[in-house]
Write a structure and sequence with these properties.
CATH topology of the largest domain: Aspartate Aminotransferase, domain 2
Radius of gyration: 26 Å
Distance between the termini: 59 Å
CATH architecture of the largest domain: 3-Layer(aba) Sandwich
CATH superfamily of the largest domain: Type I PLP-dependent aspartate aminotransferase-like (Major domain)
Strand content: 5-15%
Shape: globular
Bound molecules: pyridoxal-5'-phosphate
Number of domains: 3
Order of helices and strands: HHHHHHHHEHHEHEHEHEEEHEEHHEEHH
Low-confidence stretches: none
Helix content: 40-55%
Strand order of the largest sheet: 1-7-6-5-4-2-3
Number of helices: 18
Mean pLDDT: 94
Structural class: alpha/beta
Number of strands: 11
Largest sheet: 7 strands, mixed
CATH class of the largest domain: Alpha Beta
Length: 542
């Protein structure tokens, strides 16, 4: 590297780094003004359209040695523009419809900068002051959205030192862990001589209550974060029981009930059942009302993982799809998914304000008893003021604004589904219930071959279609014009065999109907030159 790019480590230069901003015409100041005035333009211009292979990118990130000498900010800014920004993913592009996160409203950029500048730590009031009541208000608003308690409930609990109505965290994973942590501690609570799991541990708890094991039941479409959760909580991955779904990707509650009773006769206590409100792969919502009844019947915790779909509650048009969620003991919602907040904004809500007693933690120098410190009820310690950005979006976009965004997304998904269905060479795999659907490219000749094929031929075509779908998805991504994601389902129309499908999420308000048409047209073109198709499927094109 060019030696001139190294600055000199000195007391003066370090003080400068903390006090003197970059000159207005410096590289970093230019970047700053561009992202503030035109983020979409900046991203379009500076993220390379065509993918560079990861092993090439890795060459720029080889040294494991911390640089001895400082670097000038301008030189550093230049480097990251070329090595990092250029090869990041354009998640905000309206033709990138495979991600759960999409475009951000422009006001969150300067507000994020303000948040970073203030550098508050929400673990305690001493380091966050007004941010704590703000966060408690946001939790109150989200709680009201889901549970709809009356005004006196919120005036009693929202700012209460005794409790909190929920917890902010980095995302849906930590939200799910927190919810089931509470469920576990409430189940194995203090009783007689037993001082509770939090004090005496899991083994003492199991011996005291006489359980051979604990189990969590969730649909086979449950999110993988639940696997991490049961591992961490000492329940074990074998004891997260995946229950079959119906053909519409909703859990079969009767099968869940049957499984629960089977476990109970083996001495295994069902600790919780988890309903998914917006599955990650197909966007479907479990029958929450039926599940609420089942949890009552079993006397277990009812958690709803609405990390992705929870924002639907903001739409009067569609919130009925989540009916029953108000009976959940806890709910996970990711503001960084369908609420258009930047990454790092997970929320877990508790129906019972006393729920967090089960995980309350105090320390002498911090989180003193009787304080309103949020850190006594959270898994995480130091936490940024992300609640400010959720607060901003709720205020600036408003409930009605969100309703329009949610409704538009669902309309768009229905439109895309109609495009797919009206084209003989595509096949809709899962109907959109929210703004998420899955499909694949299957030329009509191949559909006809499948209909007439014997079992062996079918298996061969299915396997080839899977490889072909994966190949198409990769080639489309590499071409850089558009992006759909892919997943593997077991749909009835493919005899419940593993089936690779394209998956799209239509949450970006800038995605137009024309863009959707272009994406299908591009896929038709890509199919013509696909090497996997040529090798394994062209023989069936009769
Ligand atoms: C995204 C998601 C999660 C995990 O959330 P993170 O924010 O990625 O930790 C959990 N459950 C569902 C249903 C999700 O869609």
């Amino acid at each position: 590297m060019d030696q001139k790019r190294y600055a000199v480590a000195s007391k003066e230069s370090l003080i400068r780094v903390f006090t003197v901003p970059e000159a207005p015409d410096s590289t970093l100041s230019k970047i700053e003004s561009e992202i503030s005035s035109n983020l979409a333009g900046f991203l379009n211009e500076n993220i390379a359209a065509v993918e560079k292979p990861l092993h090439e990118i890795e060459k720029d990130f080889q040294s494991a040695v911390i640089p001895e000498e400082p670097t000038f900010v301008s030189a550093y800014a230049q480097d990251i523009m070329e090595q990092l920004v250029a090869h990041s993913v354009h998640t905000a592009a309206p033709s990138f419809i495979g991600h759960m996160t999409s475009a951000l409203p422009h006001f969150v950029l300067p507000l994020s900068k303000l948040m970073v500048g203030l550098n508050q730590n929400l673990v305690k009031i001493e380091t966050s002051k007004a941010f704590t009541p703000l966060e408690r208000q946001v939790l109150g608003m989200m709680h009201h959205l889901a549970y709809g308690e009356d005004g006196s409930f919120y005036s009693k609990w929202m700012h209460s030192a005794k409790t909190s109505l929920g917890a902010f965290c980095s995302g849906g994973t930590v939200a799910n862990i927190t919810a089931l942590w509470i469920a576990r501690n409430r189940l194995l609570k203090a009783d007689g001589s037993f001082k509770g799991i939090a004090t005496q541990g899991l083994i003492a708890g199991m011996l005291h209550y006489g359980y051979k094991g604990l189990a969590v039941l969730v649909s086979e479409r449950g999110h993988y974060s639940l696997g991490k959760t049961v591992d961490l909580l000492g329940i074990g991955r074998d004891n997260i029981i995946a229950v079959a779904t119906n053909n519409d990707n909703k859990v079969d509650v009767q099968a869940m009930r049957k499984k629960a009773y089977e476990l109970q006769t083996q001495g295994i206590k069902v600790m919780a059942i988890v309903g998914v409100a917006g599955t990650t792969e197909t966007g479907n919502i479990d029958p929450l009302l039926e599940m609420a009844n089942l949890s009552k019947e079993l006397g277990c915790h009812f958690h709803v993982d609405a990390a992705w779909g929870g924002a639907t509650l903001l739409s009067q048009t569609h919130r009925h799809l989540l009916a029953g969620i108000e009976r959940a003991d806890s709910i996970t919602i990711d503001a960084h998914k369908q609420m258009y907040v930047p990454m790092g904004a997970g929320i877990v809500l508790f129906k019972d304000p006393a729920a967090t007693d089960a995980i309350e933690h105090h320390a002498e120098y911090i989180l003193r008893k009787g304080s309103k410190d949020l850190g006594s009820h959270t898994l995480e310690g130091s936490r940024p003021g992300m609640a400010m950005l959720v607060h901003a979006c709720l205020r600036v976009i408003g409930r009605k604004g969100y309703e329009m965004l949610i409704d538009k997304g669902i309309d768009k998904a229905r439109y895309f589904a109609s495009l797919i269905k009206s084209d003989d060479d595509f096949e809709l795999i899962s109907e959109p219930e929210l703004c998420l659907l899955t499909y694949r490219y299957v030329p009509k000749q191949i559909k006809a071959q499948i209909a007439a094929a014997d079992d062996d031929t079918k298996i061969d075509i299915y396997a080839s279609l899977n490889r072909f779908t994966a190949s198409m998805q990769k080639r489309q991504r590499e071409a850089g014009r558009s992006f759909v994601s892919r997943t593997r389902l077991t749909p009835a129309q493919y005899d419940h065999q593993p089936t690779v499908v394209f998956r799209v999420v239509l949450a970006n308000p800038l995605t137009s109907e024309d863009i959707l048409k272009d994406i299908l047209a591009e896929q038709k073109e890509l199919a013509k030159t696909d090497p996997v198709f040529k090798k394994y499927l062209s023989k069936y094109m009769r």
